[in-house]
Specification:
heterodimer, A: about 120 residues, mainly beta, seven-stranded mixed sheet, four-stranded antiparallel sheet, B: about 110 residues, six-stranded mixed sheet, five-stranded antiparallel sheet, globular
């Protein structure tokens, strides 16, 4: 049963600390997404990658957020320095785009981040 | 700018009722539309995906329809059960922008035994 995995599931940290979240996409998927979910804003796309290359990171605060895909099995989202307003659930999703068709996106369980 | 709206924001029904959740979008130039379910504290589970050339998709007791020209989609749940209680989100894939999904705010469904 293929699924997207994310670590850690929960993270509590103090303001100013660096936070790194990791995601393992489903094997064979060529597109990886990072979303953030809050009560106020709902689900927002932060960034996404196709074949490990960043396609769009316009949703990310550039000064503190960075996203990378060091290899096809790992995507990372880093926040440095973290702020209380970054508290949210961060989801990774993966999907397949092939032959001009975008297929379903599959979501991981999320990382619940609390910055105090 | 594409905006996705879901009505109602919350819905409570007795077990066994058939119900309809609504989703509307402002720009009809979408590539596909996906319905998700989210349980409290959990991730999103994909329920149905409708390509822009399709009118509907069915999976078990769920049926999703798409009317691109009017910017609307509905999710029909037949014979609702308490286990259907969750938040349902619709999301549209913006045409020609790869995999960028724009989400609605969701409908929180409660099915009472």
């Amino acid at each position: 049963d293929a699924r997207v995995t994310q670590t850690p599931r929960h993270k509590v940290t103090e303001m100013g600390q660096e936070v790194t979240m990791r995601c393992q996409p489903i094997l064979g998927h060529n597109t990886v997404f990072w979303y953030r979910q809050t009560m106020m804003q709902g689900l927002e796309l932060l960034a996404y990658f196709r074949n490990r290359a960043p396609l769009d990171d316009s949703g990310m605060p550039k000064d503190r957020f960075s996203a990378e895909m060091p290899d096809a099995t790992l995507a990372t989202l880093k926040i440095q320095p973290s702020e209380p307003r970054d508290s949210a659930v961060y989801f990774c999703a993966s999907g397949l785009v092939a032959g001009g068709i975008s297929y379903e996106q599959y979501f991981g369980p999320g990382t619940r981040l609390t910055v105090t | 700018k594409q905006e996705v709206t879901q009505i109602p924001a919350a819905l409570s029904v007795p077990e066994g009722e058939n119900l309809v959740l609504n989703c509307s979008f402002t720009d009809s130039a979408i590539y596909n539309l996906q319905w998700f379910r989210q349980d409290p504290g959990k991730g999103l589970t994909s329920l149905l995906l409708i390509q822009s050339s399709q009118r509907e998709q069915t999976s078990g007791r769920l049926n999703a329809s798409l009317d691109k020209s009017s910017g609307r989609s509905t999710l029909y749940i037949a014979a609702s059960q308490p286990g259907d209680s969750a938040t349902y989100l619709c999301a549209v894939l913006i045409y020609n922008q790869g995999g960028k999904l724009i989400f609605g705010q969701g409908t929180e469904l409660s099915v009472k035994p």
